Give the backbone structure.
Amino acid sequence: MIGRLGQSGYACPAFMPEAALPASKIGDDSRDAVAMVARCLDLALAEAATPPGARAAEVERARRGLQMACRSAQKLKSRRQGSPVIADLEGGSLPVDLQTLTSEMRACTLCTDLPLGPNPIFQISAAARMLIVGQAPGRITHAKGRPFDDPSGDRLRAWLALDRETFYTDPRIGIFPMGLCFPGGGPGGDKPPPEICARTWRQPVLDRLPKVELTLVLGAYAIAWHLPHLKGKSVVQAVQSAAEGQGKVFVLPHPSPRNNRWLRQNAWFEETVVPRIQATVRRLLGAPAGHAGHGAEEGPHG
């Protein structure tokens, strides 16, 4: 395993021999992390062949990439040891708070094939009491830099009985999609959110949102992650299965106007499920909260 990054001396204890896993036990996260470290090492070793300015930029890119890789590998190690720490590049360990994670997410460049480039869009605060989970930002959301700023968002806010200002400025409302960036279009619509996004960021962020008491799940990929027992179910089956808010989770159909027909055919959702959601939202957000800046983020394809 790799412990140091070329001549620069960056150390990652997660990759030292004593932290190595047997080959048969290395999971997808470890493989991703090791592959990223190898790539970062190549960048560092190539620095002698690049001009000083470009070399500094490459080294910084390598450092950021290695930090993400260390975090991914150390997450596996921490699960076994029950330790909420990650590897420090200088060879120690340090706690990771939500602010650090959100900063890392905003700077994320893990995906190199995004057609419009990286633009992580999410809205996260440690004060969050409810979390809206979609799939990934759509093209319009990518351009606006704000989730649900469209007719879909208007309907979603109506379902929650929230006005725009509260929706975007109340720190108790979080928005955290499965994919943080627009993944690009495909034959049947937008591409799926890249798996590496959820694998890298999702659990560390959720672990640092202890106040969340309501999760609203939209879309097949969000359902598969948050409610794996409903994976592969139809929208009707999934919404009905979570209609009582079991486990503090509701499944919502996509609020897009393109779903008008589904809503007409399943009027029970707005007649019975929406009032339950609104009652929960009133309970959680009944007292005014101070405003906080929003980091931006998506809805299913908001």
Residues 1-31, 76-94, 287-302 have pLDDT under 50 and may be disordered. The chain has two domains: 4-93, 105-285. The beta strands are 4-5, 10-11, 85-87, 93-95, 130-133, 173-175, 185-186, 189-190, 214-218, 249-252. The two ends are 42 Å apart (CA to CA).
